[in-house]
Amino acid sequence: MNAILPASQVDHTADPLRKSGRLGNCPDPQKLIEQSPKLDLEQLDRLHDASILSAAQFDLPLLREVAKLAAYMQLRKFEAGRALEDKILAAAFFEPSTRTRLSFESAMLHVGGKTLSVADAKTTGVAKGESMRDIGQMFNSYADVVVMRHTAQESVQDLCEYLRIPLINGGNGSDEHPTQALADWYALMKWRPELAFGKLPEKFRLNLGIIGTPGNMRTVKSFLTLALLFHENINHITIFSEMADPLGDEIREMTNGSPIGIDFSRNLEQSLEYLDVVYMNAIAFLGDGYRFFGDSFSLSKERQLKPDTVILHPLARGDELSTDLDDTQHNLYFNQADGAVWMRQALLLAIFGRVRNVVPREFIA
What we know:
This protein has 12 helices and 11 strands. By secondary structure, the protein is an alpha/beta fold.
């Protein structure tokens, strides 16, 4: 029988990625900051006391500044450990979550705040028929900001009816997940900082593949919404879906007139040779439960990916994303999940108007 070794005795020397404690592609946040070192606080002030309900609230200048603040936080260029010590975050998760709930709680604790959690709708008044409006009224007394995930698309608007404190949408049904998209693009901007600064020559613009259905996958919808902001540096987007209409009326209207070419395909293998980024999700919430759409579109080492192609996935994953890619440079999805904590710290500091309290003058434009 094999003995189980303590972590201190495990030999990591055979794999330099494992030896460093990291797997996959881990771009340096410093490269992002070098593109534009000074923070534009006027942009970040736009988030003061704001609710974050949709990725459409962000334009490129605002997204850039939040990403730069996250990079400074990740590099620990200044101390923010007590910035929100007088604030309480309520993590109200009426739908199961691992990464989103824990990363928001971690983010709040890292900047000195406190957290309250709802991890199961069955333990709340919802189980007794209480309305989201009334729950919103109660949150006004219990917390200073709410992060909510719910299976119902209308939950955000219902909660906001009586809510007087900022609300962060942590995923509402099949509609949106804006802070996931912020984390997605934070990872990509660290990987290729030039995406957010200036205009790339045409031959260097990215071809982006999206595996999923923006019309009913909230992470994919929010990711695509932000992708349109990078129209000067994205050449083409291909959406791979089993559904006849992967966009739906709302997203079709949003993408109409976009300078980025968008097409649809059911043949992933034929496209892999030119895709620079693959964003994938296989799980959608369709009113009565979760549906898996990943049978036709899976990625593994056996696929003919370009050597420098990176893969994003909001996780949790199933068989559509093989673990044999975890220790390759294609894997940007672990960095994507890791960076979410820093992006959410930056977002919380901006919402509470505390950026000026923690950022040294030398980093301010």
